[in-house]
Amino acid sequence: MATGRRGRPRSTAVDWAVEQATLDLLASAGYHGLTIEAVAARAGVGRPTVYRRWPTKDDLVVDVLSRAVPVMADPDTGDALRDLEVLAAGVLERLVAAGVGPVVLAVLGAAIDRPELASRLAERYLSPRLGVLSEVITRGVRAGQIRDDLDVEVVRDLVLGPLVYRVLLTGRVWNREERTAAMAAVRLAIAAPGAAAPAPPVTGPPRRRRPASSPS
Q: Where is the HTH tetR-type domain (predicted)?
């Protein structure tokens, strides 16, 4: 039986070069200063190579940001307040590790007067990431761990705002003590009565404990 003709497989090396060139140019020239021509030149590829993968500038920018800061998995530890702290710390660490804080800020700023870019960012970048937080918050409300008189978006902003604000606007990174203090304040603000006891400092996803060895 005849099979359909397959296209040429995409090159991972080319994708990486284009993505890095895009991040570099967004950081140095901003969204408005970025062009497909400049990206292609910096990546050492032809313009058709870029256009075959990303038909428009907005496609390129949103896809590159999405790859640079992947969606985090729901920790689901049984403590929604703890889960929110893990997620917030993870977002912060990924923004810093990828060095894309200023880039995200530049693109979000450009989206203010570009409805099409704003729509794509909301659909492909913001919604998947904020959706994980929303699921945790909803679960926490149902479990009696998070106040039920607060809107989900309000809780989300309270959790992310203190940590992300400094990175995006100043480039400064919270140290562990500052992060712990900020999240303790957020916990007190959003926790349901009786559920506000502070959790241990969050340094990343919780690790599984090894079973205790039995006495010989």
A: 12-72
Query: Which pTM value belongs to this model?
Result: 0.77
Give the torsion sign (CA, 69, 74, 79, 80).
positive
Give 12-56's CATH code, choosing from 3.20.20.70, 3.40.50.11030, 3.55.10.10, 1.10.10.60: 1.10.10.60
- pLDDT tens, per residue, the chain with 216 residues: 444 434 445 679 999 999 999 999 999 999 999 999 999 999 999 999 999 999 999 999 999 999 988 899 999 999 999 999 999 888 888 877 767 877 888 898 899 999 999 999 999 999 999 999 999 999 999 999 999 999 999 999 999 888 777 777 776 777 888 888 988 999 999 999 987 555 555 555 444 444 444 444
How many degrees, rounded to 5, is the angle at CA 65 between CA 63 and CA 71? 95
φ/ψ (deg, to 5) at 3: -110, 155
